[in-house]
Amino acid sequence: MAATLQTIADELGVSRSTVSNAYSRPDQLSPDLRARILATAERLGYSGPNPTARSLRRGKVNAIGVLLTDNLSMAFTDPYAVAYLQGLAEAASARETSLLLINLPTDDEAGRRVVSNAAVDAFCLYCVPDWHGALDLIRQRGVPIVIGEDPNAFGPDASYVGIDERAAARRLGEHIVSLGHRDIAVVAHWIVDGGVTGEVSADPDDLRYYVTGERVRGFRDAFTAAGLPWERVRLINAAANHREQGSAAAAHALDRHDRATAILCTSDVLALGVLDALGVRGLAPGRDVSVTGFDDIPDAEVHGLTTIRQPSVERGRLAGELLLDPPEDPAGRRLTLPVSLVVRATTGPNPTKEQS
Amino acid sequence: MAATLQTIADELGVSRSTVSNAYSRPDQLSPDLRARILATAERLGYSGPNPTARSLRRGKVNAIGVLLTDNLSMAFTDPYAVAYLQGLAEAASARETSLLLINLPTDDEAGRRVVSNAAVDAFCLYCVPDWHGALDLIRQRGVPIVIGEDPNAFGPDASYVGIDERAAARRLGEHIVSLGHRDIAVVAHWIVDGGVTGEVSADPDDLRYYVTGERVRGFRDAFTAAGLPWERVRLINAAANHREQGSAAAAHALDRHDRATAILCTSDVLALGVLDALGVRGLAPGRDVSVTGFDDIPDAEVHGLTTIRQPSVERGRLAGELLLDPPEDPAGRRLTLPVSLVVRATTGPNPTKEQS
DNA sequence: CCGACGTACTGTATCGGTCAAGAGGGATTT
DNA sequence: AAATCCCTCTTGACCGATACAGTACGTCGG
Fold it and tell me: pTM for the whole thing?
């Protein structure tokens, strides 16, 4: 039988409240008594106020729930995700709050139980399959929610911190067409659910994964504005947002006589894989083939990758702040952050055009 | 005023227990009444049984606390750590348990508060500074603990899942000396706290960070057994366990006339950085310079790195299982897992010896 | 000598559930 | 027809703390 506040109170002949105060409000009792209480607690092996009971009474648990899909490491191997979590953790930590990583099982029923039992003050939804049955439960929980991708995914009650994915992608596309490229491939992840890496034909207006969809649409915006029909663009699905998949996808753009002169990727990770593929083939990025990424992860600079810089850490930090200190003004709970085009060495003028 | 079980009970004129049963034990009441209860709950905007209250009563919160040092992303950018967490999450998820990432602030007082308030069933200690004041609190909490590095760090009450770091490192060292190498450099991370990357002289028996210490000692075991005095080995500190630091450290072994012919690293990440450095200098790994890593992260195979394979995911998984289903037998709570030497392309015979 | 005030502590309600034992009533057994 | 059983629901205790109002006592100014 573990010791509780009452055990100590009885032992010393004081009230439970006083023992509680010894821990939570040291100024409410004499230093002398407090010392005796702590000593007795130590002696009886009391482990300190029970966090659960305290949370119940206080109505606050000091935790933010972060929903992740089944494969945790998928989230952690994505540098963008790591940066986001870092920001979120910073904001949480500054408020003495922890992150509850909720691994959503594919089993719907178990998923609902896990979500129902999660003691959190708020939820951060982040790259979660929007068709999962547990999502309704989260909405019902009535706690603050922040989402990071599709601003419309959870209705207007949810906070949102994001970027204008489509406009950002358009800027990349414009950069590429302004360099004279016409033979363009787009490498995008998760165009097809559970699909394999390879060329696909898909309507950009009808992609399931929001981020990819917006980015692909942004590319198309730039192309069509430049008079380049979408049909001329080669769309290549990457089965996962991994560097290796980027390499594999690149093969479909490079190993053919009508080689693409520019490859636009929906993430830096994929773009790095594309660069690997170029290296293997002895092709020079920015000269023979132009490559762009998205996110500006730390490795992007190392490899001179032209990309869109988005404030990943900041995104996570703001998400945390929105959850823990919600602004009065509802408008302040939906933030679209600025991005910038970072032109580095992996993009250059269309080489075939120069020759003509 | 949010709805509770009582609100719904009053509304329908049933007892609170019955409403509770509607959620937690559907077989305890008629389907008809249950349907009515759920409908009323929905109508009143009831968010389901409060997880905190439920946890208090049940005495279980379905969460494992994972202690991390201040910089979260440090843990997530380390592939070994990611694998470990993946395993831990798998074990937890299988038991409908989540991971509470506790970001331990450098501020001692705040750290204690965060730890005290963390509602968890168990703690997983993992790469935590062992001098932090909050660690005592954790021990006091009286919940199961598993540690992953120094088996003696938390006393015999804590569970332990690890490998024999020293013996494993020794095998790498033996491999290298058996290839005839005599000019050896060791690249190790965190030899010096907050130090810079560069050559240092340090007593292997006196390194603060346990894992590095054991691995360096293992290297030395092999060297001295082969008659190679430790003084002949060049010890290079890497300021962080990052690929870039590996490259920077390698410079100290490569850019001099008495170039090392073998570089042993305390992690694969550092070794990959060393390989980068070789590449820049036009040196061939395994021919001009032999390089070894440690851990066998996924990228190791890609780069043909000779290394020690340890079951990282398994380590995390077992840690989780030990915490959630503790075996009766105390001996079963201290596991040392087997490792294997994986010889790939980055090690080969000493080239200078061949010439003579 | 009295009211005002501050300090140190107590008492009780409350947070929102779960659990074990029990009660009422219809169906089944003997 | 009495005994037994099961199904469905109720009762009351309990989980371990915190909040707030209140009490007792000492001190101080007037």
Answer: 0.93
